[in-house]
Structure formats: C-alpha cells, structure tokens
User: Fold these one by one.
Assistant:
Number 1:
Amino acid sequence: MKHLIDPTDLSKEEIDQIIALAQDIIAHRERYQGSMAHKKLATLFYEPSTRTRLSFTAAMMELGGQVLGFSNPQNSSAAKGETVQDTVRVLGCFADIIAMRHPIEGAPLVASEVSRVPIINAGDGSHSHPTQTLTDLLTIKRELGHIDDITIGFCGDLRFGRTVHSLIKALSRYHGIKVVLIAPDELRLPDYIKLDVCEKMGVAYRETDSLDEAIPELDVLYMTRVQKERFLDEDEFDRVKDSFVLDARRMALAKPKMAVLHPLPRVNEILTEVDEDPRAAYFRQVENGKLVRMALIISLMEWKNDPEHTMPEHETPIVNPALHCTNPKCICNNEKHQPRFRLAENGIMRCWYCDSKVR
Ligand code: CP
C-alpha cells in the first residue's frame, strides 16, 4: 500500500510526477472534475488547521469526490480513549483515502501500519508535514521556474517547524541546493536533519542568527512562525517569539526575484506591508496547496496497489528493552506501541517513530 508519511516515502521521480500533474491540473482543470466521483476522503484532524484540512476538502470536492471526518478529536471516540490504529481501521470501512493530522509524532506512521487505504500525514507534531512540502515545491517551481540550483534561507523556528524539516528532506534530492539556517540558538534545526539529511546527502548549509546578513544571497526566503504550542517552557517562548520580522526595509536588501514563502498562519513575523510586494508568494502558495493535494489524491489512488510505486525499503527496526525514547510527544510514549529504533548517521540511535535521539 502506498502511503505518504514522510517526504522520503516519495522518490524524486514521484515528487516530480505529482508536481507535473498539479501543473496539468492548472492548465486543464476541466479534465479532472469528476476523476474522484464516488470516492471518499476522510480528514482526521486531531489538531487545529485551516489550510491543510480545508485545502484537502476543496481538492476532493473539485475532483468530484466527497469528504467526511472530524476537525476536533473531542467530537470523536478518541475522547473515549480509542487508539489511532483502531480509528483508521474503522475509517477504512467508510473512506477510500485518509488524511490525518496529529499532535503526537509518529501517529500517522502507526496508522499506516494497519490501514487498508492510503494514509496521508497532514502534519505530526514537530516532526513532518509532507503535503506542505509538495505545496512548497510546486510554489518554488511556479515562482522561479526550477527547483534545482537555488539558495534557500529558512528563518525563525527551525527547531519545531515540521514544514522546514520536511522541505529540507525533499530538497536534499535536488541538485545544487544551498541552505541558510537563520535562527536564534534556542530554535536551531534539530541535529538529525543536519546529520542524517544535509551531511548525508551533501547539501551545503550554514547557520546564522542575522536575517540582514543572509537575505541578499537568497532565491527563496522561507519564513516560519515561532510555534508557541510546541514549547514546554513559556519563558523560553517569550524570549524568542519576536526573533525575526520581515519588513519592507529587509525586502529592499533582497534579490529582485527572491520568493518569500511561509506555510502560514503568520503571527507577526511578516509585516502586512510586505503583502503587496510581488515577491510575497505566501498567498499564492496557499492556492498551490489545494492544487498539489488534488494531484496527490489522484496519484495515491492510482499508485496504492501498483508494484511500481511501493513504499521505500527500510532496514529492520531494532528492538532493545535497554533503549528508551524520551520524547513525551512520541506515539510510543502515548499509546502502547513496541519501542523501535534505527541506527542513523554517526552511530546515533534514533526512535523509529519520531527520529529523536535515544538514550
Ligand atoms: N500550513 C499549514 O499547515 O496550515 P494549517 O495549520 O492552517 O493547516
């Protein structure tokens, strides 16, 4: 069964096919109306969302399909203690494909292990957000004309920003990518992305805490919100919440064709005075989200049992009672799942579900 849990579940060729299909949908919208007639998408959102849930809904509606699900787990049997796996077993009786957002990292992965229909990870905690990645790649392609050979700056909350982690993973498969990581010390990119993705895949990256210093060299500036809901310590959030603000003065330092992306919602990291700048691509990016999700739904429905489109081969997980995942937001610490691990770069042991470094 083909699922999308992590950006690396799609080969570069599959990503390029989805982006090409999205571009064909843009050119020939009428050809795809009705392509999902009599099919149903379930949206299981255990965490708030505006863009992701409603763009999935709009995408399925434009394809002639129907949508069911919940946007608040308190209105589902999760409130009575039903597990993620039992919930997707149930929804597999009602729907042809499932999009799931969950605050607990690894929840869509365990869902995919028992599901008889494709599972799409619509964001799990601070971990991964692969459909935002497809949105971002389509936006870069439409704004710049190419994805290869770009310098992209990620600015703000690189520690908790799942969209950043997923986009760096996907970009690591493209040619000539240079990454500038712009963040205060408290919000730096997790080591597993630097080691297991950038260093392993040969992506050139550097870190700075100055947006003014970095902005002149960028082709894409990817702004992010500091994610209050992920902090365990409110004082730490208060210290970093206004670290970087993009305004007209800073835009004047940038290239004439630089594209500004933001997964949204924004709080105050981009002033509204930037919105009318032609380089501000973040509302065009929202529309691309619906288009690329149309392409993804069509693709996964075609690929779900196609031997040409299997899930990537993973090494056998390591089971060792002496090892523990210490991430309180990991599914293995919230539901009864056997702790599993994998040996990553530099001999570091990581949790199978959430990628945290393991003791
Ligand atoms: N970009 C994004 O995931 O937005 P929502 O949280 O509104 O879905």
Number 2:
Amino acid sequence: MLKKMRKRRRQLTSIALATGIALSGLNFQTGVLAAEQGAPKTEQINQNVVPQLVDKASIDAVIAAMTVEEKAKLVVGVGMPGMTIPKLPVQGAVGGTPAIERLGIPAMYYADGPAGLRISPTRPGESKTYYTTAFPIATSLASTWDTNVVNKVGQAQGNEVKEYGVDVLLAPALNLHRNILTGRNFEYFSEDPLISGKMTAALVNGVQSNGVGATIKHFVANNQETNRFTIDTIVSERALRELYLKGFEIAVKESHPKAVMSSYNLLNGTPASQNSELLTTVLRGDWRYDGYVMTDWFAGTDPVAQMRAGNDQIMPGFPQSSERIANAVKDGSLDEKLLDRNVKNILNFVVESPSFKNYNHSDNPDLQAHAKVARQAAADGMVLLKNDQKALPLKKENKVALFGTAQIETVKGGTGSGDVNAAYTVSIVDGLKHAGYSLHKDLVNQYSNYISELRQMEQYKIKPSPWGEDFGKEIPVIPEMVLETNQIETIEGESDIGVIVIGRNSGEGVDRQNVKGDYLLTDTEKAMIQNVSKAYHDAGKKVAVVLNIGGPVEIASWRDQVDSILLAWQPGQEAGDAVADVLTGAVNPSGKLATTFPVKYEDVPSSENFPGTPAENPTQVVYEEDIYVGYRYYSTFDVKPAYEFGYGLSYTNFDYSNIRVNQGGKFKDQITVFANIKNTGKVSGKEAVQVYVSAPDGKLEKPEIELKAFGKTKELKPNQTELLKFELNAKDIASFDEEKNQWIVEKGVYTVKVGASSENINGKATFKVDKDIIVEEVSNSLVPEVEIDRLTKK
Ligand code: BGC
C-alpha cells in the first residue's frame, strides 16, 4: 500500500509539473493552498483538478473536497493483525490511518508501546530480522528521577519508530499507580502526577524529536485491568484534576504529544472515548490541546457519540463504524462540522508524518547504540533498598552463588502490548559472567537443567498468547526450585556471597493478586531466603537479594534476614548487564522509588475498593481514597510503609545544606528553592533531590506533603558540591476548588521540605502567601453523579 501511494504521489507530481501546478507552496491554481486568501469554498474549486493534500495549508480544501464517506473512512483506523481488514506493511504494527489516494492522503502506521517499539521481528519469506530494543519499563524509568536519561530513551525509541517505517508510537502510558496490584502498572510511571507528567514530557520530546508522533495514554483513570472495557470509574473532580488528569496536563503543555489515546473505562458514567467533557471541554478547552485523539483498541460502544465527543479516530476500526458515522451525517444526527473538525485534527498530523514525507526508512536502526541507552537507563533506575555493612558492591574476588530461577529466566518487561520483541534478554547469570565474576557453576547448571526440564512439560510450555503472536507470550510461571539445607551449606562452603534473585511478571488484561506467588512470596521463596541467609550468616558471609519485578511485592516480613536488597525492576533487554553494573559498583545506584512499597497490601489506601463492586464481577469502582493516593495517604494518615516514596540508597552519602527560599520568604507569583548537595562519601554518585510542600489547610484540606519539584545532581565526585535550584510557580502549588472550578493558592504559611525521600527530609524553609491567589478558572466539568464517601482528615 505504501509503495503504491508513493508511486501515486510521484505521478501526481509529474502531472502537476506538466500542467504547471505546483504541489507545494501557496500557488496551487485550484486554490487548495489558499491559506492567505482563506479556505476556498467547494464551488470555487476547479472541478477538473482534485485538491491534494500537500501541506497544512491545503487541509481545509481537501476536507471541502472529501465526500462524507471519505471523511467517515478516515476517522476509522485500519489494521488489527489477523483481521480481514488490510494487513499493514509493518508487521506487528497494530493500526493506522487509511489512505485516500484520490486526495493525496497517504496511510500512516501505528505501533506500541511503552518499553520500545513492538513490531514482529520476522516476516514470512524473509531472512532479515526486525528486532527492536526493549528498554526498561516505565516504572523503572521514573525511578531514575532523571528527565535527561528518559529523554534519551525517547530519542532512541523514536528513531526505531521512524527507521522501521512507523509514524506514531502508541506510548508513553501514564496512568497513576492508584493500586499496587494493577496489572499494567509496569507500563506506568508512578503514584505521583508530577513525576508521571515530567517523565512523559521528557519521553514525548525525545520520541517526537525524530519527526514521528507519540501517543499519551490511557486518558483517563484507566487504573485497573479487571473489567477494563466496562468498569465505571467514579472519582471526584478534585482528585481528577489534582491527580489523574494532572500528569496528562503537564505532558500536553510541556511536550505537545501528537496523539492522545482515550481509555476503555467509563468515567463518571460515560465511556472515556464518548466523553465530550473530557475530550473536548477539558483537553481542548482548558488545556488548548491541538493534536488528535484516538480510542483505545475496540473501546466504546457508539462511534457517532465518539465523533461528537471529540474522539477523532476510532481504533482499530471496523468498516461498520464508518457506515454508522456516514449515515449519522446523512440523517442529521451528527453535525458534519464535527466530523470535519475530527478529520482536520488527524490531517494536521498526517502532513507532518514520515509516511507523508515519503521518508525512506532504513529498517536498520542502530540497535547497538540503543542497547547502550537501555543499559544506562536500566542501571540508573535500580533502587538499592537495603545495604547493611556495605555488603554491596561485590568484591572482584568474590565467588558468587546465584540462587533463584529468575537468574536465568530474567524478566525484561511485562506482557501484553507493553512487551517488545527484542533480539535477546541478557540474563542476570550472563550479566555477572560478562562482568568477569566467578560463579558457582554447579548451582547455575542445576537451575538451568531444572528450568529446561520444566519447560518441556505441557503445563509450563511457553505458548503464543490468546491475543495473537505479537501481543506477548503467555508464560506460565515455573515454581521456584526447592533447595535442601545441606545442599545450601555445601554451596555456601564453596562461595563467598549468596545472591538470590526473585522474579515476577504481570501484564495486560489481568490485575495482580494479593496471594503467594504474586504480591506475596511463595513458601519456597521464603524458605530459600531464610535458609540461604542462615547458612551464609553462620559462616560470616553476606546475602543479597535482587528483585526482578514490575511492581511492589511484600518485603517487610523477610528483609531483616538479608544484608542487601537491590530492586532491579524489569530492566529491559540489557537486564543482566545493568544488574551487574550496579552489583559490581561500576554504576553507583541512584534510583529512588516513584511508588510506595507498603508493609502489607491492606495498607494501600484503595485496597478496600479495588477493583470495584460487586466483588465477584465489578461494574463500578469508587475512588473513595480521593486525593490520598500513595505517599499523600501514608504521610497524612501516619501509615508507615516498608519503603517510602522517594526512597533509595547509594554506595556513597550526600549531605544537604543551605536549604532556603528567596524573596525573604514571600511568595510573589513564584519562589525559588535552593539546596546544596555534597557527596560526603568515598565514591562518585548522583543524588535525586525531592522538593515537597506542606500547604496550609484552608477551605480545602491538604495532604501532609506533595512533591512539587525534583532534580538530580550530576555525577558528584567525593567532596564535590552542587547547588540545585527549583522554581515553584503558583500553579505548581495550587489546589483545585471544585465548587468554584478554580486552581487556588490559599493564603498562609507553606513549608518547603527538601529531602532524599518523602520521609527523609534534610531541610525546611517556609514562605508566606498573603492572600488567596486564583491561578486559573477552568470549565465546570466531570462532576460525578454518584455520591462519594471520601476519605478526609477531618
Ligand atoms: C491497549 C493499548 C494498546 C492497544 C494496541 C490495547 O489493548 O490497551 O495500550 O496501544 O491495545 O495494541
């Protein structure tokens, strides 16, 4: 199809040249490009020459020349693999826009997803491979607290998008970690909207620097997988504005993503893709968004309502959807102007897309360079949770005994559309070998044989998923290998340190569970930790645990038994090498948690109403915890987590000093916060510095603390100091007053808390706001009709 289109455009060019019509610039005789003269009326167009899409200025004339059927075709996508509608030239791409050759509109192609481009690595009848880079999961990227690193990941992802002939990446995803058991949390950044929004903006800016589009998704409040197509999410306007919408607002304003994907769920009673208050009033009105909106795949119930609401494109689309839309225009139930608006929003990106520009993609991105980016990001996102008596880094001469099946079956990322068909995943065992460590070989062999044997068995065979081959594989979890105590003692005698790897995976379509083998460790895993720790400690040796997981697991009950815990997350294809970088000290860990690890699941503020009611088959979920999500809850209600938001250790130490604000502590539209950070340890390292604000209660109650800014130092050498500055403006510190639809900074004394984590505050400063500041008035929208019994401190 693409080739055909290219030929057609070339033909048009030659016809144009022969007839003296320029296909670019503003002198197209038909008046197509008459931007300066205003859009031509249909009757003014020379009927002999069909207007062609040549640039932005030609869009209005092209729309004027489109039939209703053509418009209805363009707003419905193409291409779910395996379906009867056209197969896409980029195998594994999940959709795109149809070509309308008569008008010079080329097809465009879309592919997932958040951890990198997801296309098929092989194509029938070809020996060439089309592997892409599996980057660390979003939760790991957020844990870097480093927008520069994340921007580089975006640049590399966008380059693969472009070089493999795709126009739009269906990522990043930034739903909040409302509940730790959400199956797709690995695709999302954080429980906090500021870090989610900033990370998204950094990624989008990187991806789009290549001239391709990024899609921020899933808009909005798509915070569970259970009944994701039908669940009705009931949430207050304030929680929506301050939390669930906030990251999207930041991303829209700071990175102008070309596309937004509306979500599956209903929002306060209306499917998100049919919700005009969400897609038109808030997104386009309040935020001035000027890209286009597509549905999530097969979302919503009514294509005409989707069009009306401002959901510009239906994905992946059925021909019947186009028919219904065209008929609705004809019978007057859909205003053609609304359809034109949607078509225009799509064409605005079409004219910028690589397909439109006939970009000659190489099918050959620099995968080696991207692997380096992935490895650095992975190591930077790892969080050192515990390191008693400097058990880590490993010493070069250490002989390491590796325990746990995930040392071999290392998990690079979650499953579903967030998976990536990478050429390889470096396992943790291979990572340590590459780093030159001598491993306990018999133990490695034993694990390797155990895994191979089990994987032969029918119940543990890796099968293509029911979603289709490219949608991630269904990987049955194999049970942890049982180790006898005497066996552990022998291995201990033949090694210097025990390193235990615990792995978990989750994916699209199902939420995780508070059960053994998922949130909880299994009995075998617990026995392994206990017995290995005892054997090594009895001999005066150390034990470290590496967590290869996509979201929190229960840690509090076993952490005292081990010396060190490294949270490696699901670090992408370079997993093992990146783990080795941190274990060996080649990279000093500087990651910090962007999501809280609770002591127990019941401590999670939404645990009582997740995933909704009725329990056996939820249809509705009411966000009763309201604005108290994540650390906003733990800090306000004094619930001690296992590891708090913002927490993470280093192999060095940092001293915070001279924490202050300017302007004599008077807030005047903005205020600047300063902090000196000094490396007081013996090795170089980077520190993620967090600025929380405690706002005074006024008419609106406030959480104990809220993250309002963050930054990361450069790599500081021992004794080196860096001065970090953070600017806070009125919108940054405002709260949302839903009675008045205003963002407001209430008067009073605000305390700035600069810290190494949400609990480890190293210095405070205060500033005063003399009178209430109304920062912004927005539309009165998204008011729930259902009464919410909201959590409050009163
Ligand atoms: C997911 C989206 C994804 C789409 C296309 C849907 O099931 O929710 O995130 O982009 O499929 O693969």
Number 3:
Amino acid sequence: MWQGRLVIASLLLVSLLAGLSMCTIGNARQDQLEVYSWWTGPGEEEGLNAMAEAFENANPGVRFVNAAVSGGAGSNAKAILASRLLANDPPDSYQRHAGLELLDDVRSGKVTDVTALYDEQKWRAVFPQGLLEDLTIDGKIYAVPVNIHRANLIWYSPKMLKDLGLAGPPKSWSDFLAQAELIKRAGKMPIAVGPGWTQKHLMETVLLGELGADKYELLFAGRLNWTSVEVTAALAVFDKVLKVSDVDSASGDWQPQLDRVVQGSAVYAVMGDWTSNYLENTKKLGWRTGYQVAASPGSDGVYDFLSDSFTLPTGARRPDLSRKWLVECGSAEGQNLFNPLKGSIPARTDADANIYTGYLAWALQQWRDPKTRIVGSLAHGVVANNAYSAEIDSALGLFIQNRDVARFAQTVQAKYRETQ
Ligand code: GAL
C-alpha cells in the first residue's frame, strides 16, 4: 500500500519538476528578442551590435538574439526568412527595405500595421514625407526605418588615380570607358564587381547615369519600356562596362570586391555607402586620403537611396519587446548610435548632424540639400516588388552569360507586365 503511495508521490514530484523546468524554459525563451537581418561580419555588424547592447541595457533580463544570416543585400537571408515566414515561425523583428520590397509581406499578412506606434512616437513629424510614403501600403505603415543609404557611388584610391595620371573619377560612363583603356594598358582591372546582387547594383547605376533620374523613374514605374531605344542603348553601355570588369572571375561578397580596390589590382568599384564604414573602420583608411568616393558616373546631384527598416511580424512571440525594439530603431538615440557605425545617415530629419563626420557629413549634406534629386534603388528593394526583382535577377544571370542585350530587354519587359 505505502509503496503505491510512494510511486504516486514520486510521479507527482517528477511531473512537478518537469512542469517547473518547462516554465523556466518557457520564460527563458520568452525573455528574449530575436532580430533577423543580414548584418554579419566587418563593415556590416558594428551598428547592429551597438543597438543590441543598448537594447539589453534598457531591458534588464531580456536577451537580444542576433539572428543575422550573412550575404550582402540579404542574398541568403531573404530566402531563409521566406521559409520561416511560410512556416509561421517569424523572428520578433526582421529587416526589410522601405519600398516595394514590403508589399508581399503586407499582402500575405506577414507583418503587422505599426501606424499606432507612429502616432504614439510622433514619428510622422520626424521622417521625410517620401520615406513615409515608401513605408505605407493602403494607408497603413508597416516598418520603422533606421537609416538612409546611398547606392550610386563609385569608390577609389586617390593615390591610384594620381599614379595612373587620371585627373579625377569619371563623370559619365563614356568617360569611364575611355579611362578604362588607359587603366588596362597599365595592367589594372578598371572596375571590380562581386556576386549577382552587386552586378544588379552596377546595372542600376549605369541605367541611372545613362538615362537620367526622370527616365530611370519612368522605367521602374513601367512608363518607359526596357526595349526602347534609350534603355537598350544604356544596357549596351552596361555590357561594355562589364567587359572591362572582373565579372568572370569575381568571387566573394562586396567586401572582397572592395578589397581589390584597396589592394590596387582594380581601380574602381560601384557600391553603396556601407562601404565607408568598412574602409574606415576595418581597413583603417581615411576619407579623401586613403580612399575617395564620388557619385557614380552621370549621377551627380542624384541620391539613389534605400532605407533599412524593421518590422513587427504577425505572430511574433513577444510583440511588446518587438515594439520596444522598433522604438529604439526609430528614436534619435538609436539612430545616432547606429548610423555612424553602419556608414549610413539617420532617417530622422531632426537627428544631430554634428556626430556625422568625414564621408557621412558629406552624405548628410547631400541628402538634406533641397536641390538633390532623390530616386529609389532597384537592388535594395525600393522600386521593384519581389517577384519583378527576382525575374530581373534571373534574366541578369543569363545576360551575364550570353550578353544578349535585346533578349535581356525583352525578357525584363515581359516580366514587368506579368509581375505587377
Ligand atoms: C543592403 C542593406 C545595407 C547593407 C548592404 C550590404 O541591402 O540595405 O544595409 O547591409 O545591403 O549587405
């Protein structure tokens, strides 16, 4: 009899302990914020790490789980995120670009409307109107921007240009092609490129430089055909630029692409301004002394922008913590902490300009100059929805192999119609 009672008592004790430990596990899982991005490695992660530390300090007992997946421009992260969202296993917040990249998530109900947070934080008064429009779908706002990056930039070493006898960076793509002849004769690679997304980034800047801002916008608004005379002429220039690049041997991501410029085997690279953090903090090069940067050929006065933003996913485990994270992303303190380390400028219009020095001071001045023309980036989510963007990626992959301008233009034009 007593043995039976002992067995029951032991069973009760075991299940009580199991219950207790489940609770502990449950709480441990709950007291954490999982933030998903593609910011890993040098030149990418410094700003996020600073924000993570600030988040933990402001929320004692809550662990910041950095769920970043490496690969520039989200080249790997976006695919893995898609499968997590499909499986209803979202992180507590994930990175998206402002613009059409957000559309699918909104339409498929993967992200929550954060308009009320905007009202509570009075954010509508501190973010630029155009950016707010890029974050708004059907009258509701779906993400919080932490920064502004510029895509249309060409990076180089001032010493290299001097050694080659070049007076300055190319002002147009035909100027670049003329310089490329001289550079090749000197045994150097005129322009370095990296993986597929960097080739798309380069194409975007060639289109911008050759077409000008108005026609660039018309093209992505579907009001100028890819098969038109001017766009095919611009694509032919892109083809010529690729011919004087290392596209056939390019390996690694954007950092190795820039390394070739730093080491001096290549002269130029087109890349966004996350490069400034990499060159200054990882490579220890000074702006204008160790490295220099200019608007990509033909795009002076234009700011081809993108904005890293964070979302509140539907089904996030701790939406209260997600909201706290979003508040940090949108706050002046958060943006002041993040941007000088990320190599970007604040999305907020009221942020303190004095903490931006060197290249970033120049970027901020250009962004705030009312004469600057702002357009949105293709490679970084602003002007193309995900389906159209993916079709451009496939067509571009084929174009890199066959270099058939007419076929590329026809394919992209047809895919535009299918994906709207
Ligand atoms: C962009 C992103 C930047 C930077 C870059 C390189 O898409 O907006 O913040 O991380 O990719 O990975």
Number 4:
Amino acid sequence: MHRAVCPGSFDPVTLGHLDIVGRASKLFDEVVVAVGVNPSKSRMFTADERIAMLERACGGFDNVRVASFAGLLTDFCRANEVNAIVKGLRAVSDFDYELQMAQMNASLADEVETVFIPTAPEYSFLASSLVKEVARFGGDVSRFVPDFVHAALVSRLTTGPTSDPTSDLTSDNTPADPVPEA
Ligand code: ADP
C-alpha cells in the first residue's frame, strides 16, 4: 500500500490544491489531505471549517481522505503509515523552502520520501493568502476556488467574524470562530 499525504493550511482550499491532490490520487493507493493545526497562527477559517470544505471538495476522489495534524508532519506520517509527502511546486520561490523542509523531514524520518508535483500553469500564481487578499478588496476570486468555498469566503468577509458561513458544511454545527484554529 502506497499512501501519501498532502499537507497544508488550506485556508481555504483552492483549485491549485485540488489539482495537486487529484494528480497525487492517481499516483498513490491512498492520499490523506492533512490540515495543519497551529493555534498560534491566525486563520480566516477554523480547522473544522477547513476540514469540512476539503471533505466536500475532495468528495469526488475515491482514494482521498481528510485529516488534521498538529506537531511534526513526520510523526503524522509514522502514525498513519504514510510513505510519501506530496508538495506542489509553483515557482522557484517555493523550491528553496520546500527543499529545506524535504531534507529536514528526511533527516527525521528517512523512510518517508518527499515528492514534488509541478503546478499546472493556470494555477502557478494561486495561493490561499492571495485569494483572501484579493477577496478582501472586492476582487472576483470565483475562478480560483470551488463555488461553495467562494460563497463561504464572501459570507465571512461581508458578515464578519460572528457569522458561520460554513455551518452547512460542519457535521456537528460547531460554532465558527475565524481567529483561533484549535
Ligand atoms: P497556500 O500557499 O495556498 O497557503 P498551503 O500552505 O495550504 O497553501 O499549501 C499546501 C500545499 O499546496 C503546498 O505544497 C503548496 O505548495 C501547495 N499549493 C498551494 N497552492 C498551489 C498551487 N496553486 N499549485 C500547486 N500547488 C499548490
């Protein structure tokens, strides 16, 4: 069984992420999309909201599941019998950092290989942070994220932090708080 992880913050998931997940799903028996939970970082969407959006966005892939992790990714890999970390590479600017991470992770767990997948050209400029920034200033980002993510983004930006734009996505109706993550 070859199992890979696609780690990230996914705040929120974009079509660039989904392109990488879909391509990884063809290379591996199973792909785990793992949402990093780091309480010290402020996010637009809570971990539960990001997971719910990913579960919906990845629903069409038979061999993809969504999980979360806190702490070292290599510990998550060991605990989940994951043999490969899949990262998308957009530009040279990604490469420096990703190479450093890959080498550090290899030194922590040499049984886990990092695999880089080059971004599709149409998504090479796409990052969650940029999508949020453009959306904040009223730009149309509907081409870059799934429809329901776009609706959640617009709702969060227009109704503010007390709204729960993804309440229909979370199974347990956990109240949404846009700042803390866990
Ligand atoms: P972002 O940079 O969008 O905030 P994340 O931290 O959630 O993304 O990234 C998770 C993974 O997805 C990383 O490996 C990153 O390189 C990859 N990724 C993000 N956006 C794209 C994209 N547009 N094309 C290819 N890979 C991407």
